Amino acid sequence: MEATSARVMTAEGYLAPPPTPHHYEGNPGAHKHAVRFGMWLFLATEILLFAGLFCGYFVFRADFPEAFDQAARHLSLALGTTNTFLLLTSSLTVALAHHNAEHGHNRNAFWLLVVSIAMGGGFLCIKAVEYTEKFREGALPGRFFSFSEITAPGGPMFYVVYFFATGLHALHVIVGMSLLTWVAVRCWHKEFSPTHYAPVENAGLYWHLVDLVWIFLYPLLYLV
Amino acid sequence: MTTPPASGSVPAPAHEHPPVSPLRYFVVWGGLLALTLTTFGVSKRPMSGQAHLGAAIFIACVKVFLVACFFMHLWGSEGTNKLVFGVSFFFVATMLFFVLADVATRFTLSNSYIRPLPQVDQSILQQQRPLAPEAPAK
Fold this sequence. Notes:
The structure holds 2 protein chains of 2 kinds. By secondary structure, chain A is mostly helical. Helix content of chain A is 75%, strand content 0%.
């Protein structure tokens, strides 16, 4: 925060951007490229992390097709679809926040980020309702499974995939909400401008990745 | 520390990509919602399980394309970012392809065309060769 307090407000109404690192002195465009490229490399590792779980999903689904069919019918389609709507809309508001921050409209960006964080919170609340129902039914992974309505063999394996995939995703939602909170506070302090908006962009990229993963999880778990 | 930082004197390109109207984000969002409804509707149609899975994955890939290109600004971004995203998808597809090719082509050995192993002649096992004598101690 001391960096924020040390900087001066420009005539356009936002804080003067922080100094470019010395090795990018005179070439701020290259600095922006590097910051964005680093984020994309990180996102690639995240994609490959989730890919392992998707691979497990396909293998277990091939092994226990009937159990996966029965278990998918016991997931709440209404809650899953509502969550899809929430995440897609929060991606829209994050994209709009990025757009506003990039044009120096920090207060607009702040409120758009607040709405996005609220939608992330809504997503987690719905997920908690779903998890509570699963715990009540005994629809749980491995040896904790005691759900009588799934008769085909392999029911516990569906819930291994379900809880690990949605759990890891929910963890990413929490991290994403934390990042959005961090950049929202900085938006409130009017820190972003046409020359300095990388934190909003990169936090946004992370949030969009959370959305991308859910775009695959939703049909695979709830629909097919 | 009330003077502007040194980098303020260096002109930076304001936007690397051409100016985008916020309307575009709403159009993409509408497209994503329409595709969500489509994947929901397709899942209710009478089709085989494999066809359902294929349709769901295809629609999900279209949605990912929209989010990555427009919300994540990959469209018009630096080529390196496109390369990273494309290669990560290629590696995921490679992993899934070979794992699923393995799962899909497994068969039960006992029902296969492979002939059973010949019975071992038990008399061979009786003719144990004596152990080699140990080297004499010096």
